Amino acid sequence: MGVAERKNRDREAREQRITAAARQIAEAEGWSAVTVRRLADEIEYSQPVLYSHFRNRDAIISAVALEGFREIKTVLHQAAHLSTDSRRACESVATAYLDFARENPALYEAMFMMPTDLLFAEADTRSELRKAFEVLAAVVPSSLDVDVATETFWAALHGLAQLESSGRIKHSTRLARVALLVRGLFG
Fold it and tell me: What are the start-end ranges of the H helices in 44-84?
């Protein structure tokens, strides 16, 4: 391994330590507890080292969000392949999405509610976001305008995730809500 390869690997490892620490703090105490100073203390690097990797706290949150999109893509892809029946696959994806949001509240918040520089539905949308969207699109009925139907499906899931996390709707009726949502998509 050459010097440049080693330096690149070391840089990536430091960035991973920074984002892992940010996630850990956010999951335990919320995003308000995640500061550059706190991260530097947690991982025993100086603040200038953190700033050499990320220009500010929002850039760290963006990096965490990208990790989240890679993770949710994998989770949704696995759920989509639990059934060969298109309705059941769609229900599995919807349930997996809601489970992901419930099990990873701070990560989900970074992905969808925290300020980031990530662009959605644009020509230069990051591949991590596109790939997660494509997994959702793959379970939407092909007879529909796939982009519009997928955005609507996603928006409904996001709304349900938010209402569940705030305790404004009963978790016990989740499957009935998912079935209703999927029935609406499939007509």
Answer: 47-53, 57-80
In one-letter notation, the amino acid at residue 125 is T
- Alpha-carbon span 181 to 187, nearest angstrom: 10
Q: How far is CA 43 from CA 40, 46, 178, in A?
A: 6, 9, 41
Per residue, what are the HEC states of 85-143?
CHHHHHHHHHHHHHHHHHHCHHHHHHHHCCCCCCCCCCCCCCHHHHHHHHHHHHCCCCC
Q: What is the pLDDT of residues 45-102, one digit of tens each?
A: 999 999 999 999 999 999 999 999 999 999 999 999 999 999 999 999 999 999 999 9
Question: Residue 126: what are its φ and ψ, rounded to 5°?
Answer: -60, 150
Residue among 63, 158, 176, 182 nearest 102 (CA): 158
Cα 117 to Cα 3: distance, rounded to the nearest angstrom? 32
